[in-house]
Prior knowledge:
Elements: E1 4-12, E2 15-23, H1 25-32, E3 41-44, E4 47-50, H2 51-60, E5 64-73, E6 78-81, H3 84-103, E7 112-119, H4 125-134, E8 139-151, E9 161-165, E10 171-177, E11 185-192, H5 199-208, E12 212-225, E13 229-237, E14 243-252, H6 261-274, H7 290-294
Amino acid sequence: MPMAYTTCMAMSGNGVRIYIFQIAPTVLFGAARGAAMPGTAVRATGLWARRPRVTTMLASASLELLYHSIIILNLHTTVHINMYIILVYLRALIIVNYVAGKNNMSFDIRKHEIELKYNAKDITINSFQKFCEVLRPKDYKNVSSWDTYYSGDVEGVDFDFIRHRQDVPSQLTVKEKLNEKNNNQRIEVDLLLDSSTNEEDVQRFCERLGFTYNFKVFKSCYIYWYDQIDLVYYIVYDEEMKEKGRFIEIEARKDKFFNSAEEAWSLVTEWEKKLSYFGITPNHRIHKSQWEMNRR
């Protein structure tokens, strides 16, 4: 039986790939006349599949068709047909499938920081703790540690500081702002360190990357965890242990699942309304980070 072989040159993140499909010629002639191709069976890279499956396969690989031609073969003649109509049709299906698949990709909160911060100089620890207990937290912890900040202006790097938190375990953190006007949502990557890693090792490592010591603060934190949110009251001290400020934060939990950044942000702002108990409103949001408030 005569068969048609369609060659697609496609682009992907790994470079250019060539795909060869095998389609019944009667279907091709119908499509050339502008007819639809319902139920077309297509053979791609040795696997039989229905047309939607093939377009989904292409879309999921983020493929972009650049060239498309058909050669129809039989026992007596070879005919070359420009299949522009099929190209447009497949291209549309690929875009639709790709966009649908991309929209369904889950949001990874582990790589983000979504939070709101407020000045708590007029709010006592006791009143905050009583407030949090009424909301029935899942867990509570009081932790304290030194945060050392290393600054740098390295070409091609999207962050300007590295933070070393000397907690247990200690960790290195980099943050990238997504909005220059505030720090409500940032890219945040934490790297846990081995217990044997000391501050001198971290400093030498940061210096090799082009980041040098800038400042150090001590933080005492009172953390309450709820289903998908945590509330934190913390006090910041300078290197001489003089109090620099008190703050309250609402943050989307990194160990929970969110479908999107919008979903996490909606939950954070919903919890912000609960803080009206202390007279806190959206107008009280602090837009600067500890790095921006203390860097030299």
